[in-house]
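P.,

For your records, the input lines for the assembly:
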Amino acid sequence: MLILSMLGLTLTGCAGWQPPPAGFDDSVLRVRAVTAEVRGVKLNAAVLSSGDSQRMFGANINAAGVQPVWIEVENTTGQMLWLLRSGTDPDLFSPLEVAWSFHTSFANETNAQLDDHFHSLSFQNPIAPGTKQSGVIFTNPHQQSRLLNIDILGQGQLFPFTLFLTVPDDQTDNHAIALDNVYQLIEAATDDYQNTDTFRARLEQLPCCASSADGNAAGDPLNVILVGNFADIVTALVRRGFRNSELEFDNAQRLYGRPPDLVGRKSAMGGMPANWVRVWVAPFRNQGETVFVAQAGRRLGWRLKEVENEDLMLNPNVDEVRNLLIQDMLYSNGLSKIAFVSGVGPTSPGELRGSLGGASYHTDGQRAVLFLVTRPLSLSDVQILDWHPALKLREADAVKELENDGN
Amino acid sequence: MAGKFNTILASISITLTLAGCASSGPVSETEKLDYKSRAITRSDGAVLVSASVLSADESHDVYGVALAKKGIQPVWIEVENGDDIAYWLMSPGLDPNFFPASEVAEAFASTHEDETIEVLDQHFAALAFRNPIPPGTRVSGFILTNLDQGLKMVQVDLVASGKHKSFSIFSTIPGFRSDYRARRIFIRELYTEDEIIEYTDESAFRAALEALPCCVTNKDGTRNGDPLNLVVIGGLDDAFPALVRRGWRPTEQTWSGSVLKMINSAMAGERYPYAPISPLYLYDRPQDFALQKARDNIHQRNHLRLWLSPIRYHGKDVWVGQISRDIGSRFTIHSPYLTTHKIDPDVDEARTALQEDMVYSQSLVKLGLVKGVGAAAKDAPRRNLTTDPYYTDGFRGVLMFDVHPTAITDVQFLPWEGREGGFIEHSTQQQ
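Structure tokens returned:
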């Protein structure tokens, strides 16, 4: 029975692969491609639509749960470069792995041809000085728009890129507008704090929470501040598995009279949404750098439990999510400093503070301030700033708890 | 073969007996504390870290719910901080997909109608490891991780401002067969002092690596299998923590129970992180240690097998390994289990992907390539023991680790093979 079913699996799907007509015209991709340059390394990248992958590969790779991304790297530096694919997606598919899913039984020649074709179109390292290398990498799918992180390694230096790519088959106009909006808001931020004390004071004075659309009800707490270059912040989040994903549920939260400018979600096993970071561009800067005011939260309910959008609700333990976001960012290679400021306002022990949609939460009232940089950093490089003594207070509490436990 | 069956039967009956014991009568306090007595302690300066992984029964006793059924495994950790600063324990270092206590409370609140979520939440929060660890104190508690069977690599990262301490502890989980082998390896019974060859000269070391056998073999050593395409320099303090940080987990040894589970999982296309890994041979023994990085389901996982060699380099252990990427399951008559993994014939791809991934591990100091596998062209591929074809440029990937954290840009290339040390032109790969 078992063997019969195994054979059944192999025998299905004998449609047969046909090689696409030779000479795929990549100008379609170039039109859509986003371009960036870092210290003599030029990058072009675009996500393939189902139509593109059919024309290029002779198979709809997108339908197989793979998101093909076309990349072109031009190396005008004097050194050999290597694209670290793990920085884009640690769970990347190999070209022959994708090809194998289109193999058919008893068709060795066709299968070999298919393998060759997929291999020849894939991105190949290294990128020699003065050359241009292009090809496709096979990533796990992102919806709506793709925050593409590309790390290119040279001798003792990294050329990091963060691009925002549209996902052609899954594009809603709203999303492109939202992204343009973020850039405009970043440009528009005026007050630039040069002094740490005044910057800190400004962060403390921010409202505790978002509000409802009519401004009458308080929303979720604004418990995280992200400071840095926009690309660095996004890179750190992407490296730790956050993806851009905005749900209708997020739009109920308002700050500066608008819904979140961007929402990142960290998907759990099986693609379930687990944690979120909702961000708003602040109308001020710190030493020229962009400041995001953010909410770190988690939906109520077990991560493997399926929920409909209308069932989404804030988990009361918001501090836990905030603290775990700090820990996650410590492993991003991009976190340089951590600080805490007050401003959310603590809830009394046993008290729950209400938020939108019937949700409620408890908190110690602290905001975490995370400073992100481009230079890759290790765990021992992260500095904890002596702003609000949140950690010292927690340390004192911990000592008391241990004494009470008789430890 | 008969012997193998007897072992399997014996282990099944042992499991059944243990299950019987667990459900009969109350568990004594001593039994409850068993996990503490088998905790393994490691120290760095004035900081001591102990860890122990709970079996399914133990976690049921401690938490009062069947955590293992939901794929959750508590790790008990105790930190004794003799330093003059406070440390914070980083949960994502143990398991990038660990479970916060409140989330697990919610998972069980729906199944235990008599208990409210608040009660479970408080209970689980009280058991959880609470940061920080103030100077001069001892803090203990549980971190909830994804379930591993047999053996778990517990990676403890302690962070303070501008400071980081890293500990790694291999913890065996009662009731699994891999306990015995793992213990043997880590107390280093494999080689006598006379058998150990210590190298400090780089070129002599390189020659020794080149002279290693090309490939794994079958049990009798009569047929060659997959290429030995990895050399890992380091061990418990540096190489294994790096692998854990990037999501690699030890596997259960192949035995009948997990084979059945794997077949079920292949049928349903479900994610099953403990697919067995079949034995391949080097030094007349199966792999000392097997790891895998599970992705969305059983059809997509990378396999890594390691053998401790008698070679040491500047005092560090040298492991010889084999890595391949599974791109699917297929039917075979070359395995007693009738199914096998179809490997990516471009085996160098998996080796390169591991090297790239380890650059992000914070513990890799050097990487490079060394000869020894022997090239196999794409149009004249070699075959592994289950007759899967593969082709290769003939190099082994070399990964050297160190306990001190290293940023991406500080990773060095060994000037051994390839241009500018380690870079292999693609055109030469396909010859």
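Two observations worth noting. The radius of gyration of chain B is 23 Å. Residues 1-32, 176-183, 254-275, 425-431 of chain B have pLDDT under 50 and may be disordered.

Regards
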